[in-house]
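quick q for whoever's on today - can somebody do inverse folding on this one?? i tried earlier but teh output was garbage lol. C-alpha coordinates:
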Protein backbone atom coordinates (compact mmCIF):
# COMPACT_ATOMS: atom_id res chain seq x y z
CA UNK A 1 0.00 0.00 0.00
CA UNK A 2 1.53 3.25 -1.10
CA UNK A 3 1.37 6.12 1.31
CA UNK A 4 -0.12 9.33 0.01
CA UNK A 5 2.48 12.02 -0.47
CA UNK A 6 2.57 14.61 2.26
CA UNK A 7 1.11 17.94 1.25
CA UNK A 8 3.77 20.48 0.54
CA UNK A 9 3.73 23.73 2.53
CA UNK A 10 2.18 26.61 0.72
CA UNK A 11 4.83 28.67 -0.98
CA UNK A 12 5.03 32.17 0.54
CA UNK A 13 3.23 34.63 -1.65
CA UNK A 14 1.04 32.01 -3.33
CA UNK A 15 -2.73 31.82 -3.15
CA UNK A 16 -5.68 34.00 -3.94
CA UNK A 17 -4.90 36.29 -1.01
CA UNK A 18 -1.47 37.10 -2.43
CA UNK A 19 -2.95 37.66 -5.90
CA UNK A 20 -5.54 40.07 -4.55
CA UNK A 21 -2.84 41.79 -2.49
CA UNK A 22 -0.75 42.28 -5.63
CA UNK A 23 -3.72 43.79 -7.44
CA UNK A 24 -4.32 46.17 -4.55
CA UNK A 25 -0.70 47.24 -4.60
CA UNK A 26 -0.99 47.97 -8.32
CA UNK A 27 -4.30 49.81 -7.92
CA UNK A 28 -2.76 53.21 -8.63
CA UNK A 29 -1.41 52.13 -12.02
CA UNK A 30 -4.75 50.51 -12.86
CA UNK A 31 -6.58 53.70 -11.88
CA UNK A 32 -4.17 55.80 -13.97
CA UNK A 33 -4.72 53.66 -17.06
CA UNK A 34 -8.50 53.69 -16.63
CA UNK A 35 -8.73 57.44 -16.01
CA UNK A 36 -6.39 58.31 -18.88
CA UNK A 37 -8.18 55.95 -21.26
CA UNK A 38 -11.61 57.28 -20.32
CA UNK A 39 -10.77 60.95 -20.86
CA UNK A 40 -8.81 60.18 -24.04
CA UNK A 41 -12.15 59.14 -25.56
CA UNK A 42 -14.60 61.31 -23.61
CA UNK A 43 -12.86 64.70 -23.40
CA UNK A 44 -12.30 66.74 -26.59
CA UNK A 45 -8.65 67.56 -27.39
CA UNK A 46 -7.50 65.69 -24.30
CA UNK A 47 -4.55 64.14 -26.16
CA UNK A 48 -3.43 67.38 -27.81
CA UNK A 49 0.15 68.48 -27.19
CA UNK A 50 -0.97 71.79 -25.67
CA UNK A 51 -3.24 70.03 -23.19
CA UNK A 52 -0.50 67.57 -22.24
CA UNK A 53 1.83 70.47 -21.36
CA UNK A 54 -0.81 72.28 -19.32
CA UNK A 55 -1.84 69.10 -17.55
CA UNK A 56 1.77 68.22 -16.72
CA UNK A 57 2.16 71.61 -15.02
CA UNK A 58 -0.98 71.01 -12.95
CA UNK A 59 0.19 67.52 -12.02
CA UNK A 60 3.56 68.91 -10.93
CA UNK A 61 1.93 71.31 -8.48
CA UNK A 62 -0.11 68.53 -6.89
CA UNK A 63 2.88 66.19 -6.90
CA UNK A 64 5.11 68.63 -4.97
CA UNK A 65 2.55 68.87 -2.18
CA UNK A 66 1.84 65.14 -2.26
CA UNK A 67 5.54 64.27 -1.86
CA UNK A 68 5.76 66.39 1.28
CA UNK A 69 2.45 65.01 2.51
CA UNK A 70 3.67 61.44 1.97
CA UNK A 71 6.51 61.83 4.46
CA UNK A 72 4.16 63.43 6.98
CA UNK A 73 1.55 60.68 6.66
CA UNK A 74 4.19 57.93 6.87
CA UNK A 75 5.09 59.25 10.34
CA UNK A 76 1.43 58.99 11.33
CA UNK A 77 0.69 62.70 11.00
CA UNK A 78 -1.22 65.01 8.68
CA UNK A 79 -0.56 68.50 7.33
CA UNK A 80 -3.68 70.51 6.58
CA UNK A 81 -1.78 73.79 6.28
CA UNK A 82 -0.05 73.22 2.93
CA UNK A 83 -2.72 74.97 0.86
CA UNK A 84 -2.55 78.07 3.05
CA UNK A 85 1.25 78.03 2.93
CA UNK A 86 0.97 78.07 -0.86
CA UNK A 87 -1.22 81.17 -0.68
CA UNK A 88 0.97 82.93 1.89
CA UNK A 89 4.20 82.22 0.03
CA UNK A 90 2.70 83.36 -3.25
CA UNK A 91 1.67 86.65 -1.64
CA UNK A 92 5.11 87.16 -0.10
CA UNK A 93 6.70 86.55 -3.50
CA UNK A 94 4.31 89.03 -5.10
CA UNK A 95 5.03 91.64 -2.44
CA UNK A 96 8.80 91.30 -2.84
CA UNK A 97 8.67 91.45 -6.64
CA UNK A 98 6.45 94.55 -6.68
CA UNK A 99 7.51 96.49 -3.61
CA UNK A 100 10.68 95.02 -2.18
CA UNK A 101 11.20 95.46 1.56
CA UNK A 102 10.33 98.95 2.80
CA UNK A 103 12.55 99.98 5.73
CA UNK A 104 11.07 103.48 6.06
CA UNK A 105 12.74 106.88 5.58
CA UNK A 106 12.93 106.31 1.81
CA UNK A 107 14.96 103.11 2.27
CA UNK A 108 13.78 100.10 0.32
CA UNK A 109 15.60 96.83 -0.25
CA UNK A 110 15.03 95.24 -3.65
CA UNK A 111 15.72 91.55 -4.26
CA UNK A 112 16.69 89.50 -7.27
CA UNK A 113 14.91 86.31 -8.26
CA UNK A 114 17.17 83.95 -6.30
CA UNK A 115 16.87 86.02 -3.13
CA UNK A 116 13.09 86.16 -3.46
CA UNK A 117 12.92 82.38 -3.82
CA UNK A 118 15.16 81.82 -0.79
CA UNK A 119 13.09 84.18 1.38
CA UNK A 120 9.82 82.57 0.34
CA UNK A 121 11.15 79.05 0.90
CA UNK A 122 12.42 80.11 4.32
CA UNK A 123 8.90 81.26 5.20
CA UNK A 124 7.40 77.95 4.08
CA UNK A 125 9.96 75.98 6.08
CA UNK A 126 9.32 78.32 9.02
CA UNK A 127 5.63 77.44 9.05
CA UNK A 128 6.70 73.80 8.98
CA UNK A 129 8.88 74.47 12.03
CA UNK A 130 5.87 75.95 13.83
CA UNK A 131 3.82 72.87 12.98
CA UNK A 132 6.61 70.62 14.19
CA UNK A 133 7.05 72.48 17.47
CA UNK A 134 3.32 72.44 18.20
CA UNK A 135 3.24 68.68 17.64
CA UNK A 136 6.51 67.64 19.28
CA UNK A 137 6.90 70.14 22.11
CA UNK A 138 3.31 71.05 23.02
CA UNK A 139 1.86 67.61 22.16
CA UNK A 140 -0.89 69.11 20.00
CA UNK A 141 -2.52 66.56 17.71
CA UNK A 142 -1.27 67.01 14.10
CA UNK A 143 -4.81 67.53 12.81
CA UNK A 144 -5.47 70.39 15.26
CA UNK A 145 -1.99 71.94 15.00
CA UNK A 146 -2.01 72.14 11.23
CA UNK A 147 -5.66 73.20 11.15
CA UNK A 148 -4.66 76.16 13.32
CA UNK A 149 -1.72 77.12 11.12
CA UNK A 150 -4.01 76.74 8.10
CA UNK A 151 -6.13 79.62 9.39
CA UNK A 152 -3.16 81.69 10.56
CA UNK A 153 -1.33 81.40 7.24
CA UNK A 154 -4.48 82.14 5.23
CA UNK A 155 -5.26 85.14 7.42
CA UNK A 156 -1.71 86.45 7.01
CA UNK A 157 -2.02 86.10 3.24
CA UNK A 158 -5.25 88.11 3.28
CA UNK A 159 -3.79 90.77 5.56
CA UNK A 160 -0.75 91.25 3.34
CA UNK A 161 -2.89 92.92 0.66
CA UNK A 162 -6.26 93.47 2.37
CA UNK A 163 -7.57 90.59 0.27
CA UNK A 164 -6.44 92.10 -3.04
CA UNK A 165 -4.34 90.59 -5.81
CA UNK A 166 -0.73 91.53 -6.52
CA UNK A 167 -0.85 91.89 -10.34
CA UNK A 168 1.75 92.18 -13.09
CA UNK A 169 4.63 90.38 -11.42
CA UNK A 170 6.97 91.09 -14.32
CA UNK A 171 9.81 92.19 -12.07
CA UNK A 172 12.44 94.81 -12.69
CA UNK A 173 15.52 94.07 -14.80
CA UNK A 174 17.48 96.65 -12.81
CA UNK A 175 17.12 94.48 -9.70
CA UNK A 176 17.26 91.08 -11.38
CA UNK A 177 13.68 90.20 -10.44
CA UNK A 178 12.48 90.07 -14.04
CA UNK A 179 13.54 86.41 -14.30
CA UNK A 180 10.92 85.44 -11.71
CA UNK A 181 8.61 84.34 -14.54
CA UNK A 182 11.05 81.58 -15.52
CA UNK A 183 9.85 79.34 -12.67
CA UNK A 184 6.34 79.06 -14.01
CA UNK A 185 6.59 79.99 -17.68
CA UNK A 186 10.11 78.92 -18.63
CA UNK A 187 11.15 75.66 -20.24
CA UNK A 188 14.33 73.73 -20.95
CA UNK A 189 14.64 71.25 -23.81
CA UNK A 190 10.95 71.81 -24.44
CA UNK A 191 9.97 70.68 -20.94
CA UNK A 192 8.57 73.18 -18.40
CA UNK A 193 10.94 74.21 -15.62
CA UNK A 194 8.39 73.10 -13.01
CA UNK A 195 8.62 69.53 -14.36
CA UNK A 196 12.42 69.56 -14.07
CA UNK A 197 12.08 70.81 -10.50
CA UNK A 198 9.61 68.02 -9.77
CA UNK A 199 12.05 65.42 -11.11
CA UNK A 200 14.81 66.75 -8.85
CA UNK A 201 12.60 66.89 -5.75
CA UNK A 202 11.05 63.46 -6.43
CA UNK A 203 14.42 61.77 -6.98
CA UNK A 204 15.86 63.39 -3.87
CA UNK A 205 12.83 62.39 -1.79
CA UNK A 206 12.94 58.80 -3.09
CA UNK A 207 16.65 58.59 -2.30
CA UNK A 208 16.10 59.88 1.23
CA UNK A 209 13.22 57.47 1.78
CA UNK A 210 15.03 54.35 0.55
CA UNK A 211 18.75 54.97 1.02
CA UNK A 212 19.33 57.11 4.11
CA UNK A 213 19.02 56.67 7.89
CA UNK A 214 16.49 59.51 7.98
CA UNK A 215 14.25 57.61 5.58
CA UNK A 216 14.44 54.47 7.71
CA UNK A 217 13.66 56.52 10.80
CA UNK A 218 10.62 58.09 9.11
CA UNK A 219 9.17 54.63 8.44
CA UNK A 220 10.12 53.44 11.92
CA UNK A 221 8.31 56.35 13.60
CA UNK A 222 5.15 55.67 11.60
CA UNK A 223 5.31 51.92 12.11
CA UNK A 224 5.86 51.97 15.87
CA UNK A 225 6.72 55.31 17.45
CA UNK A 226 7.36 53.86 20.89
CA UNK A 227 9.55 51.11 19.51
CA UNK A 228 11.47 53.61 17.38
CA UNK A 229 12.13 55.80 20.41
CA UNK A 230 13.37 52.83 22.45
CA UNK A 231 15.71 51.85 19.61
CA UNK A 232 17.35 55.27 19.67
CA UNK A 233 15.47 57.13 16.93
CA UNK A 234 15.12 60.85 17.64
CA UNK A 235 11.36 60.87 17.08
CA UNK A 236 10.85 64.61 17.58
CA UNK A 237 13.65 65.46 15.15
CA UNK A 238 12.16 63.17 12.53
CA UNK A 239 8.75 64.79 12.89
CA UNK A 240 10.27 68.26 12.70
CA UNK A 241 12.09 67.26 9.50
CA UNK A 242 8.99 65.99 7.69
CA UNK A 243 6.88 69.05 8.54
CA UNK A 244 9.70 71.35 7.46
CA UNK A 245 9.98 69.46 4.18
CA UNK A 246 6.22 69.70 3.68
CA UNK A 247 6.47 73.47 4.19
CA UNK A 248 9.33 73.61 1.69
CA UNK A 249 7.24 71.83 -0.95
CA UNK A 250 4.30 74.15 -0.33
CA UNK A 251 6.51 77.24 -0.64
CA UNK A 252 7.85 75.93 -3.95
CA UNK A 253 4.29 75.53 -5.24
CA UNK A 254 3.44 79.08 -4.14
CA UNK A 255 6.42 80.43 -6.09
CA UNK A 256 5.56 78.43 -9.22
CA UNK A 257 1.90 79.48 -9.26
CA UNK A 258 2.73 83.18 -8.75
CA UNK A 259 5.27 82.90 -11.55
CA UNK A 260 2.86 81.10 -13.90
CA UNK A 261 0.03 83.57 -13.37
CA UNK A 262 2.29 86.62 -13.05
CA UNK A 263 0.01 87.50 -10.16
CA UNK A 264 -0.54 86.51 -6.54
CA UNK A 265 -3.92 86.11 -4.87
CA UNK A 266 -4.44 85.34 -1.16
CA UNK A 267 -7.00 82.61 -1.92
CA UNK A 268 -4.49 80.60 -3.95
CA UNK A 269 -4.07 77.06 -2.68
CA UNK A 270 -7.53 76.55 -1.21
CA UNK A 271 -8.32 72.80 -0.94
CA UNK A 272 -4.85 71.93 -2.28
CA UNK A 273 -4.30 69.89 0.87
CA UNK A 274 -7.16 67.59 -0.14
CA UNK A 275 -5.56 66.89 -3.52
CA UNK A 276 -2.23 66.19 -1.82
CA UNK A 277 -3.78 63.77 0.67
CA UNK A 278 -5.76 62.07 -2.08
CA UNK A 279 -2.65 61.61 -4.26
CA UNK A 280 -0.59 60.24 -1.37
CA UNK A 281 -3.25 57.80 -0.17
CA UNK A 282 -4.17 56.74 -3.69
CA UNK A 283 -0.47 56.08 -4.26
CA UNK A 284 -0.38 53.56 -1.43
CA UNK A 285 0.55 55.67 1.59
CA UNK A 286 -1.20 54.29 4.66
CA UNK A 287 -3.12 56.79 6.78
CA UNK A 288 -2.13 54.77 9.84
CA UNK A 289 1.53 55.43 9.08
CA UNK A 290 4.56 53.30 8.39
CA UNK A 291 3.91 52.60 4.70
CA UNK A 292 4.23 54.62 1.51
CA UNK A 293 6.37 55.16 -1.57
CA UNK A 294 7.31 58.32 -3.44
CA UNK A 295 6.85 56.58 -6.80
CA UNK A 296 3.30 55.58 -5.89
CA UNK A 297 2.57 59.14 -4.77
CA UNK A 298 3.72 60.53 -8.13
CA UNK A 299 1.40 58.13 -9.95
CA UNK A 300 -1.39 59.13 -7.56
CA UNK A 301 -0.75 62.79 -8.37
CA UNK A 302 -1.11 61.97 -12.07
CA UNK A 303 -4.44 60.27 -11.39
CA UNK A 304 -5.77 63.26 -9.44
CA UNK A 305 -4.40 65.76 -11.97
CA UNK A 306 -5.82 63.93 -14.98
CA UNK A 307 -9.13 63.50 -13.20
CA UNK A 308 -9.35 67.21 -12.39
CA UNK A 309 -8.38 68.46 -15.84
CA UNK A 310 -10.48 65.84 -17.61
CA UNK A 311 -13.59 66.81 -15.68
CA UNK A 312 -13.00 70.47 -16.53
CA UNK A 313 -12.61 69.66 -20.23
CA UNK A 314 -15.87 67.70 -20.12
CA UNK A 315 -17.63 70.70 -18.60
CA UNK A 316 -18.43 68.99 -15.30
CA UNK A 317 -19.53 71.43 -12.60
CA UNK A 318 -16.90 72.39 -10.03
CA UNK A 319 -19.34 71.27 -7.32
CA UNK A 320 -19.43 67.76 -8.77
CA UNK A 321 -15.65 67.83 -9.10
CA UNK A 322 -15.43 68.37 -5.34
CA UNK A 323 -17.82 65.50 -4.72
CA UNK A 324 -15.82 63.19 -6.97
CA UNK A 325 -12.52 64.07 -5.29
CA UNK A 326 -14.08 63.35 -1.91
CA UNK A 327 -15.27 59.97 -3.13
CA UNK A 328 -11.76 59.23 -4.45
CA UNK A 329 -10.26 59.94 -1.02
CA UNK A 330 -12.84 57.70 0.70
CA UNK A 331 -12.30 54.92 -1.82
CA UNK A 332 -8.52 55.17 -1.44
CA UNK A 333 -8.72 54.87 2.35
CA UNK A 334 -11.15 51.94 2.13
CA UNK A 335 -8.85 50.11 -0.30
CA UNK A 336 -5.86 50.85 1.92
CA UNK A 337 -7.63 49.31 4.90
CA UNK A 338 -8.54 46.28 2.80
CA UNK A 339 -4.91 45.93 1.74
CA UNK A 340 -3.77 46.02 5.38
CA UNK A 341 -6.24 43.29 6.37
CA UNK A 342 -5.36 41.04 3.43
CA UNK A 343 -1.65 41.58 4.00
CA UNK A 344 -2.00 40.59 7.65
CA UNK A 345 -3.96 37.48 6.68
CA UNK A 346 -1.39 36.48 4.06
CA UNK A 347 1.41 36.84 6.61
CA UNK A 348 -0.45 34.61 9.06
CA UNK A 349 -1.01 32.02 6.31
CA UNK A 350 2.68 32.06 5.40
CA UNK A 351 3.71 31.67 9.04
CA UNK A 352 1.31 28.76 9.46
CA UNK A 353 2.60 27.10 6.27
CA UNK A 354 6.22 27.47 7.32
CA UNK A 355 5.39 26.09 10.77
CA UNK A 356 3.99 22.85 9.40
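ok took a stab at it. sequence:
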Amino acid sequence: MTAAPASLPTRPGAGSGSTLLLLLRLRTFVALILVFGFFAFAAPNFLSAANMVIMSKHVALNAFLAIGMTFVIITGGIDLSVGSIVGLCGMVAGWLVLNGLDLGQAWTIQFNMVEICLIVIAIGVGVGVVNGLLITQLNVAPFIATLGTLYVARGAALLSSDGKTFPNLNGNPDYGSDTFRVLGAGSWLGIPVSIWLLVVVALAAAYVARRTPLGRHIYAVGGNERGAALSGVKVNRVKMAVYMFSGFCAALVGLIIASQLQAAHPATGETFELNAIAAAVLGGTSMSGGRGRIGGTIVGAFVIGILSDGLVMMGVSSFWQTVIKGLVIIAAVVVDQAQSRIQARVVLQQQAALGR
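fwiw The domain at 26-36+46-346 is CATH 1.10.3470 (ABC transporter involved in vitamin B12 uptake, BtuC). also The chain has one domain: 26-36+46-346. so keep that in mind when u check it
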